[in-house]
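Help!! Second protein's tokens look totally different from the first
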Amino acid sequence: MPRTIHLHNIEVKSLSHPHGDLPADMQMSAQLIFNRHIFLQTMAVEMEPSQNSWKLKPDCNIPEWALTFCLAIIRHSPTRGIRLLGHTEATQDEALRSGENDKISLCLNLAKINPDGPLLQLIITASVSDFAAATPCNGMDVLRSQINSVNSNIQTIEAHLNQMDTDSKMHIQSDTAALWAIYESILFLPTEKQVRARLLKQLGHICLKHSERSHMIDYLNQSVYAYDDAVRDDPGNVTHLQDLGFALYCRFQQRGGVDDINKAVVLYRDALNHSAGNYLHTVITTNLSTLLGVRFRRLHDINDLKESMSMQEDVLQLTPDGHPEKPGLLNNLSNSLLHCYEEFGDLGYLQECIIKQEDAVRLTPDGHPEKPFMLHNLGNNLRSRFEQLGDLSDINDCISKQEDAAFLAPDRHSDKPSWLNDLGCSLLHRFERLGDLNDINESISKQAYAIFLTPEGHPKKPGMLKDLGNALRLRFQRLGDLRDINDCISKLEDAVGLTPDGHPDKPSWLMDLGTSFICRFERLSDLSDINKGISILKDAVHLTPNSHLDKPTMLQNLGNALLRHFQQCSDLSDLNECISKQEDAVHLTPDGHPQKPARLNNLGTSLKIRFEQLGDLADLIESISKHEDAVHLTPDSHPLKPVMLSNLSNSLSTRFERLGDLSDLHESISKGEDAVHLIPDGHPDKPANLTNLGSYLRHRFDQFGALSDLNESISKQKDAVGLTPDGHRNKPIMLRNLGTALQLRFERLGGLGDLNECISKKEAAVRLTPGGHSEKPGQLSSLGISLLRRFQRLEDLSDINNCISMQEAALHLTPEGHINKPSRLSNLGYSLLLRFQKLGDLTDINESISKQKNAVHLTPDGDPARTAMLNHLGIALQLRSKRSGDLDDLQQSICQSTAAACSATGPAHVRLDSAKRWAHCAQEAQHSSLLTAFQVALDLLSEVAGLGLPISDRHYQIMKAGPLVRDAAAAAISSGQLEKAVEWLEQGRSIIWGQFLNLRTPVDELQQKWPELATELISLSAKLDRGTTQENDVQLADSGAQQSLRSIAHQEHENAHKRNVLLSKIRHLPGFHQFMLPKTFSQLSSAAQKGPVVLLNVSQMSCDGLIVQKGLTEEVMHVPLDDFTPEYVKSLAESFEDLMPYVGRGDIDRLHAHRERSFQDLGDKFAWILSELWVRLVKPVLNALAITTPTKDNLPRIWWCPTGPLTFLPIHAAGLYGKDVAFGSKLSDFMISSYTPSLATLMQGFCPTSLPQHEFQLLVVAQPSSVGLGYIPGTKDEIQRIQQCARGKVSVQSFVEHETTLANVEEGMMKSSWVHFACHGVQDQYTPTKSALLLAGSSRLTLERIIKLSLPHASFAFLSACQTATGDKELQDESVHLAAGMLLAGYQGVIATMWSIMDNDAPQVALDVYEHLFKKSPPDSTQAAEALHLAIRNLCESSGGKKSFFHWVPYIHVGV
């Protein structure tokens, strides 16, 4: 009976442990081979604890026919791969002879596969039986390969290899088991004569081809094993060293193992050493330089990059032009230069890289297989330069090159998918710059096709999926189609799933996936998305070492996600962690790196947000510093420059809100405008920048009150809302910003449509903001304020109740320590105050005061918002004092109002309101601070009506001040401080004209001592003088003109601010502490050098005359007008207004009988008004002056400077009129009257000119007809009489009818000393500066044009037109009429009209005036008042006293 050997155990012992072929992570298995066929293979087992043996359990029978059996030992290592370590062979007879009692113990040494392999010993334990039982093969695998033969016949092995090679060329894949069998067969061959090495090399090639086609790692591993054994058989063979190095490089590319690239470099270095003098030396050098470049990209060891470039430069230098390898070498060097740029951010490397790449393309002939590759690389490099500089020609050229490359490559080309994918990325970059949807759609199409062409398992497939996912995310962000973001996440999840752990790109893929979840959260507000996104981003950061180039980007993205989580959930720990991550990102980014500005920018934004939460000024200052660095480091052409500018402007605006520094506000607007200008239409960032700019303009409106700023703000906000799709996370904020701007316009203009639209927008904002969102309290508070405004207008109690409910909800949702907590307390307090005013519930006012006090307590000194809070608290305390009579409340109201008025920050109009309340309360309490309060208020007037504003806006601000100036003067008079009363009336009246005079004031003394400061001041003053009359209602159709107008407005604010800073600096110089400050009385008194000046003050308390005259010990004389009460003055002015005929010079028919009868019917009332003025006002003044004797010749002069309603009453005509009235019963019997807008105007008129003598010329302008008005024939007669009177005495230049163009008239005024206008004149009731003299066609010489004129020779003007000194009812103390404008333009004296004049009177009056003036040579304009006095006397006497008051009273003289 045959005997059967049963194998139980095989113990493998290492006699050379440790050994490089026996890594710590290995397992071991054994193969049982019969007749050169692999029969069975054991399960792989771990090393025994003894650290030098492995115990295998084959548990199988050796068939009786297998007379000889072979055992092969296999290593299995995750890091080192599968490898045959050795083998041994024995016969059954040998085995049987080695045993006793049917027990076999056989000890065999393994034959080494390689001479340097480990020494292994086998101890086989078996048993012998006399029957052949069917024993199961426990612990064994049966190989199912069709080729499991281990042949030792060289010819057979070569035949198999050749067949496999042929199959490979025909794209027939070989079974991996078959390849292993061939591999083992080769290894069983002897190592002599390098035959085995040659066969291993051939096998390696076959496996590598299979790997390149299938991207299966098993094939690639097999090629590495084969090449490795070839090198071990023939260690110095250069080809084998290169083959193994290349295979390891390929595996590194697929798996990312650093050991593989390190070994590849070592192998190529070895090959290089062995190739000295060999033709392969240059090729190996080139390949080694490539590997070093690859390793640099992974490990960022700069020495690798330097060595790589050095090698490339050496090889390039040795390669002559025309050599076929030259383009490839240039291409390699350009790649290294690109790596240098990516590492150091030095643009010079990128520029040189592109030059080299362009040379490579140029030297590569068309049709060359490498041409597409060169074109593609050049395109990539151009894209990199575009990313740095933003030059559109670069990205366009890049796309062109990449399109050429893709077109030249057939679909079967292995690089075609990669090139299509890169082309898609470039199209995406252009989309990000220009916003053209065609680009992103084409990008997605190219990337999708690239993925379609890429087989499963290809190592680049995950990267392509990632790029496609990112493109889909961008399209979603543009169009909002949820399918895009869902598809994006799906693609990125596939990319991550296909990327093994440990792969160097895995963290990057995770980063993009996490970012996409955040993006979907923005749309759907599903917290699970943002939580998942943050978790994934944290994984990405954790997996990335600090040395990795992508680490800063990952930290940045994680920081951004944490910021969004904070904004959603209001957890401060998120915000703090966000800032920490962003600081790490900035720290890890080297200076000069192209991403440094973006990371600084993001950090700055987060610091600003934390400031908004906690109010720590250090955060805001650091935020601005980071944003400034980001802007400084970013060229204007860079696509991210607008973002940098916008965020800097945002932080500057916030600091302005906190500290009130106007330079911050101006700078924020400037930067915001730059940002909007740089962003193309259609760009997704455009709306956010528009709404930000709108907010900054609104802040400037809050500060200065320029309506143009507010209108522009609303326009920007509307554009932002219109461009933002529904569902966008910023939509609620934009709606609120628009609503706030509309509310302000309602407050300014009173249009309910604005307020209702405002509330609608804010309600939508509240509705669209989810609960728990950090913006929800702000939305509620803002809506509450708008409801409060509607309550104030309509008094609907539901509005105030809803307002208070919303303010309470907003306050409840605002955490303690939040920067907006004080403002929300204040808003609620103010709302309760208004409800108290309506309902009188003391609970409301008490709660209001409590809330306001808390708000003030929580707000730091210097915060501009504190001013409004103090103001509101002062109001509440004053109201409670009135209700309860508690004097403590009144004292506290004074205290709070004082603090607000004297604040260094906060809008000037708020401080002015506080100062007025302070004065009111001080007057009520008879507080000693009364005059101080008025002084503070008056000082604020010029700030409220700042020089940077258009005149109409300054007028509005002055109107809001009301009778403040007159009340202040009355208080000073009551205190006996008459000189101060005069100073205050001068300071607080004709403010606009005073500003212009100030701008035009010579600075001779400053020029002598501080010429540089003087030059700067003159320049700024001149700019403001030229630009400050620009009105805000100009309609410009051209967008460029609109932009120019906005720029001018911004520049005016800038210039005004610079001038104020400069004046402050000058006033700190020795001897200049009063420089250009309001004049003192000692200076003002010179206005009375030719006669007394009477200031008539009409306050809410009294009416007073203040007489300024020279030559008296007491220079200010007080004339109490006790019979002329403020109420009586007002009623008298109203009665006079009813008398005014709204007719002009052209109403010829009204000058005949029926109109005269009407005048006669009104004459009695007119006479009564003039008599009241005589008795109650003028006669007391004359008595005070001791002027009691009337005279007809050589009458003295008197100047009247009225205030309030008195500015519309004809004081010069005061007297008693009638048949029996005696001589000496009217003012004109005693004195010749003139008017003056201010004392400064008189002083200016009395100043001698410093210009050289100019030849006298009179300009006469006659325009009898104007569009829309009647013909006035008397104008031609008037001109003819003047010319006749002047003939032979003075030079006359005339413009009549069509000659009276603006250009002719203004040029004539420049050359003439005197000017006479005979034409229509109009006072514009809505825009006073549009008041005008009507010239040819529709031309108008408006007040705003007149005050722009600087007329060096001007002396006297006669405005023989209607309404040239009428003024504006709402601006009683501003002298907003044409006569005052003429004085400002340089004329010393003006004859003008208070209302309409009669066409048939005007020629006679003009002739009489000029006949008197031309008696002297040269004519003296200071005689104009006397000439008018005589002309009017003659007009009345020539009619036998029949001329009604309406004929002669309108004529007045203004000025010197």
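Here's the second one for comparison:
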Amino acid sequence: MRWSSHMNRNYYLLLSFLLTLYGWLGKVAAQSNGLPQPEIITQRQGLSQGFISSIVQDRQGFIWVGTLDGLSRYDGAEFKIFQPAIILEIKTDAQGRLWTRNERDLDRFDPTTETFFRFTQQPFYLKHFKREPIQCFLVDNRNRLWLGFGTEGLVCIDLRTNRFRRFRHQPGNSHSISHSSVSDIVQDRQGRIWLATRRGLDRFDESGNRFIHSNSAGATPNALPDSAIRGLYVRPDGDLLIVTQSHLTIQQSRTGDLKSVKLPKPSAEKVLGFSSDHQGNDYVVMDGLYRFNDKTGFRLLADSSGIRACRGVYVDRSDVLWVATNGAGIRKYNLRSGLFQGAPYRMGFSADLLTRILELPVSELPPGLARADAYNFRYTYDRQGNLWFSVGNSSVYRLDFQTKKCRAVPMPPLPPDDQADRPVLLTTDPAGKIWLARHLSAWRYDEAGSRWEPLPFTIRPNDDRQRQSLQFVVDQQAIWVITGSNGLFRTDLKTGQSRHYTHHPGDSTSLSRNNLTCIFADPLDANRLWIGTYGSGLNRFDKRTGQSQWLTMKNGLPNNVVYTAIPDRRGFLWIATNQGLCRLNRQTLQTRIYTHEDGLLADEFNRFHFLQLPDDRIALGGLEGITAFDPGKLREDTYQPPVQITAIQINNRPLLPGELTQNRTVSRVDQLDLKHDQNFITVNFAAMQYNRRSKIRFRYQLTGLDPDWIVTERPTAVYTDLRPGDYTLKLNASNTSGIWSQHVRTLTLTIHRPWWTSWWALTAYGLLLIGIGYGVVRAYLNRIQMRQSMELRQKEAEQLRMVDEMKSRFFANITHEFRTPITLIMTPAEQLMARFREPQDQQRLTTITRSANQLLDLVNQFLDLSKLEAGALKAEESRGNLREFIGAIVQSFQFQAEARGVDLRFFPENSAEEYWFDAGKLERIVFNLIANALKFTKTGGEIDCRLGQTHSGKVVFTIRDSGIGISADHLPHIFDRFYQVEDSSSGLSEPKQQGGTGIGLALVKELVELQGGEIRVQSTLGTGTEFTVELPYRTAVPLAVPTPEVSVVAEETDEVNHLLIVEDNQELATYIAETFTDSYRIFRASNGAEGLALALEKMPDLIISDVLMPVMNGYSLVRELKKDVRISHIPVILLTAKSAFESRMEGLATGANDYVTKPFHVEELRLRVRNQLELQRKLREWIRASLINPDSPVTDPENETSEPFLEILYPILEKNLDNSMFGVEELCQQMRMSRMSIYRKMKALTGLSTNEVIRNYRLKRAVYYLRQGLTSSETAYQVGFDSPAYFTKCFRELYQMTPTEFVAKGGIA
């Protein structure tokens, strides 16, 4: 493409120059750091201090770190810290011990016992060497310690005998050390000792006890370039590295030849660290971190600013580079992750791909490429290997890799309605011809005529015009096209016929999803396609059968969003996802996952951000940049990590070095002898591999208990309650490729038997059993002798027991049998009283009802006695006002007392207001005592009932009458069952009329004793009787009364139910509120008027209301609630002390949903509230379902529910069904309700908003018209939608299908 003006050409040249300069600077910056992203280890990960002086790895594989705060051991998960002193250097000896140095002291640390030995504080050392500063040291393979001092030369100490030799420079002696200042000491693989002194390099000759000096600079052709040595290092292959002021010299171990390489810049200080990896690279720390290779030379990896004053370096056995810093902790680099190359974005995916990956000059970039949408990038290759690509701007380009030239290829004529933002799809058929597709059209490129030949038919049906074609492949028979939401299409190249493949729920052989992201042909199987989906994994599609095999996270994929599935030449598929890159074996379907820990720039990739080069290299674009790699160079991890024990717990207590471990640390323990009660064992272990720790798996097995290995992600083995015996615990780990290591750590466990299972204990048990057997035989013989005498007594007792049981069963059965005829007497009598109003009829019917109630009471007493006798009656406490409770019972006898001319009085004396008591049993006690007193008190008499409290806190109820009294002879027997006083001497003048059944007082006594109380009686014949009942009722603690009217006691969420409590007694209201604080939001009101206002304001889910209240009582509140259509749906539970039948009927008649009598049980009230809320929820679900279910047509809305609000709502909606302007505001006007009130009412009844109710009603009515044969558009206008497209969208959201699909299925949703 040419630019039209000279100014544009100048602008383009300037832009090209700037981009070229920017790309060159980026390459230089990228080359300055050849390390992968580091893992940073600081105090947050458990490091004791940020200044790191030295890092080594011991024989077992642990990493040891020296800091200014002591020594730390790292197992890959946590640090174990030892703090003797400041550490400047760590080295290991041949025995596996650690030697640590600071400026003046040298310590030896034994990892087996985890103890320090202060070597320089020993008497012999202080005697001969005092406190001379140590510059360097070495423990050689002959267990000798070499010390280099700043001015006192060199010392060699035999650690077995403490004998030593000192070497100093002797002027005139050419075989003495070259200088008394020694800066470094090493030992090569031949056992030779090499020294770096201020004057050069020395080698110690053991045979001649002399030093051989290397040639100084310029002495011979094989001399060192200069004599200022900065450091010595012995490579793994035995070669000696010598760093001088300006050169690095390699002395070959076999020939002794020297090879010098000039340093990047002169080194003025001592080299701080050397190390080597398994690829033959050496790492040197000078003024920065350098990588040196014999072939490539030096490469600066990081300067002092890049790795904050690098202090040391170490490469462990798993090729992890550990870099010690001055105050910034440790930088850990995985040297095996360099197989992935990352390139962060600079200009965008398309431009960076061409310039940085394909190395295309910036001047050859197509105009506007940096601004193009990278999601439209598509490419293919022709037979000559040229790259054809497009970025969706109606242009196609061809790149020649040899000439690095990119030229535009003219596009074919596009349809008039073509959109410029659509991607240009490219592919190559098996014959090598280039194909181009745009939306529904396709062309094939004629190379001979340099023109595009159009396909005579569309690649997808015309009715699918709204969806874009995303990617396609062409084989010898057909074109295969994927879409973003409508599945896969196959179009026959000969006939043009299309076949559609989509996801079918329930069919596991269909596509797993209709949202497709990529399609690739399998180069090794012409009948196989690999199709990625957005959220449902990968599909292995068979062209012959049209069936798919689903591959998801269950099959090993890292994520179910698949952006790319590129097949390579080696039989693998490379799958880019949201959570990493997956390599899939196309035959075995085995997977291997790569993440940022393996070197990926980021774990999340993008759609259509990929390129596969002709040489099989792959470039993938993600959120942060491009990751490029060669699949053929990726290798499996072959490292075999050893496994070490890091901690042992016995009975949840850490195992420390001691007698049990033979004074060794747990990492060195191989066997444990444990007591029988030391059988709860926890073993923590670690794999000694420090790269990609998250990919390492662990397993363990306890032979003698576990039949097989137990695989775990957490390296911890836990065994509880192990039986005595011998066990072997085997611990193992995999490497980062999932290959189990051949190194298995074992721990032998012996759990000894307890003393009571030893042989002498078993012998004692045997003798004891013999003695017991003898005693049993003797006892058996005695028992036979006594059996005859005991059988007679047993038979007598059995007969008495059977008679007692028969009596109890008789009373229980007869009382139950009485209930049915009593009910048949009472119920018709009550109905007749309501029908016959004549006084004479009323008197007779009242007599029948009263007698039936007395008979029912007698039956209930018999039933209580039978329950008491069977032990089935239990005391059940509830909280209540004892004065009001007993006062109400006394008040219920007032009419009867007045009718008999008896003065019945109640005196509540000093007692608390509320107690915990059994209301049912107390009511029976008080009822029987008052009824008994009334029965035997003549006209004009008095009955006093008193309620008080003793000093000990017991409740005392006394009833004293002025009746006929009881003689002293009968007093001891009045509480016996069925005892009656019938003779005239008792004081009963009319025994036939006054006598009872003899069970009332007996029941009272047993009920009092059941509650832990006692009853006493005093009586004088002719004067009266006094009954005293003492009950140990607990005083109820007064509840705090909150000052605000509305108290929020639970966090308000959409799931919390709102309760309104209307109660004038603040203490009782607080108690009820605290009962529901766990899962309810509470509102409070002190009378009915306040409750009604709060109900309108807060719209609670349920109301609990008292009946007797000031201003407005509970009955009036219920009537007002039910009259108001806005709040008529709220259920109401009335709570009152009125337990009479008439009171309950009045409450329920006003519209109350439930009725609870005081005092009540807390659990009963909670269950009643829960049941009412559950009924409301089920009603709401039913109404909501009726609005959604298409199989329940709204032909007669008025009959669908009895809810008054809906009876008004549905006709209004039906009347305005075809009015598209009818909405919430119009509905509020016709309902004469505010917008907020109608919204709350809708939410309470249906769980839907007002808009959703109107829309769902229209859609439900639409089902009726669709079934009547109307088209989708006609139906849309008929039910008030002014846009058929919006109607289709709403219909699909509600019924999961379009109106057309609904009709096609016969009107079945």
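Reply: Different proteins will give different token patterns, so don't panic. The chain is about 25% helix and 30% strand.
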